[in-house]
Amino acid sequence: MKKYAFTEEQQRVLRCTEDFVKEQLSGAEGGHDWWHVVRVRNTARALVKHEEADEYVTELAALLHDVADAKFYGGDEEKGPLLAGAFLESQHVTPEVREHVLNIIRHMSFKNSLEGRRFYSAELAVVQDADRLDAMGAIGIARAFNYGGFKNRPLYNPAIAPQQQMTKEEYKNSEAPTINHFYEKLLLLKDKMNTAAGRAMASERHDFMVRFLEQFYKEWEGE
Questions:
Q1: Domain residues for 162?
Q2: 179-198: per-residue pLDDT in tens?
Q3: What is the distance of C-alpha 22 from the center of its chain?
Q4: Is the residue at 135 inside a domain?
Q5: 204 within a domain of the structure (yes/no)
Q6: What's 171's domain CATH number?
Q7: Count of structural domains within the chain
Q8: CB of 161 within 8 A of CB of 168?
Q9: Lower CB count within 10 Å: N or C terminus of the chain?
Q10: pTM (whole model) above 0.85
């Protein structure tokens, strides 16, 4: 199993990246804040040990992947890559590493996967799995309802059925109740994992969400 072995310069860049991301996400919505980034990085560190992936690219992408989530910037999907790219250039990160990290940021989101795969690397596979795992299980449930509250969405409305075959634009513009989000994204993630280690972790978290929904509906009906 691989171990992390960053050079002194890489360690310096990573420390500066942490500081940059913390500043950018100060006051962010609780499901997409600095602690989300910490969890994704920690999970990516666990997954990358089992993959033929570059640890430095993986670490940078995990730290920078949500530096400016498009849904908090009027749907501007280039805001994050532009911010991350300018920062990496200021840190004299090589063009090859910089472009790889930016490609991961551009292509890792669930909504972009609805258009089909346009870029792939072992590092994307790891960071994407780590990010998707944070949308599952107990934390995924907490994040879903936190964001639903942030957007003032109802918990559940039996009259509004989930849409499981949405286009990217339909997904971006959805204002459905939070429970619908489980069927439109969260319960689909288990079968979208890229890595064997990610699939193993996803299975347990998926089962937990299924049990939560069963209990939710029982309580909704007054049982």
A1: 8-220
A2: 999 999 999 999 999 999 99
A3: 17
A4: yes
A5: yes
A6: 1.10.3210.50
A7: 1
A8: no
A9: N
A10: yes
List the pLDDT tens digit at each of the 223 positions of the chain. 455 689 999 999 999 999 999 999 998 888 899 999 999 999 999 999 999 999 999 999 999 999 877 676 666 778 888 999 999 999 999 999 999 999 999 998 766 565 566 789 999 999 999 999 999 999 999 999 999 999 999 999 999 999 877 666 666 667 789 999 999 999 999 999 999 999 999 999 999 999 999 999 999 999 8
CA contacts within 13 A on the Cβ side of 22: 7
What DSSP assignment string belongs to the chain?
-------HHHHHHHHHHHHHHHHHTTT--GGGSHHHHHHHHHHHHHHHTTSS--HHHHHHHHHHTTTT-GGGTTT-TTHHHHHHHHHHHHTT--HHHHHHHHHHHHH-SHHHHTT------HHHHHHHHHHHHTTSHHHHHHHHHHHHHHTT--S--TTS---SS--HHHHHH----HHHHHHHTGGGGGGG--SHHHHHHHHHHHHHHHHHHHHHHHHHTT-
Whether 3 maps to a domain, the answer reads no
What string of DSSP letters covers 76-101? -TTHHHHHHHHHHHHTT--HHHHHHH
Contact 77/92 with Cβ under 8 angstroms? no
The HSE-up count of residue 41 (CA atoms within 13 Å, CB side) is 21
Place of tokens 């939560």: 212
| Other CB atoms within 10 A of residue 45 CB | 16
Is 9:93 a contact under the CB 8 Å cutoff? Answer: no
Token digits for 121? Answer: 């690397």
